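Incident log, structure service

09:12 report received: a user says their structure output differs between two submissions of the same chain.
09:20 pulled the input from the user's history:
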Amino acid sequence: MNTYREKEVERRNQGHLQFRSGLDLAMGVLYVIIPAYAMALPYLVEEYGKTVVYTICSLFAVYGLMRIGRGWMAMRKLMQRRKQGS
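09:34 re-ran on a clean worker, output below:
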């Protein structure tokens, strides 16, 4: 039997998980947008070389896509828990 305290802790944990998954989505979008912008800047390519800029930008973009995927999966998991709890 769940006590009031256990229910309150579970509610707080869900709030934290929802915040974290939203943060993962937002940061993932930023990690994808920033390299796209950096590749469009011609002076970065001239300064550091095409290979270096494209390599770093692609690593950032892959990490951003991973964060978006992690946030998306966490959001789906939270929604499934809410449906089961209702």
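09:41 both user submissions now match this output. Likely a transient worker issue. Closing.
09:42 reviewer note: The longest helix spans residues 4-40. Helices lie at 4-40, 42-48, 50-85.
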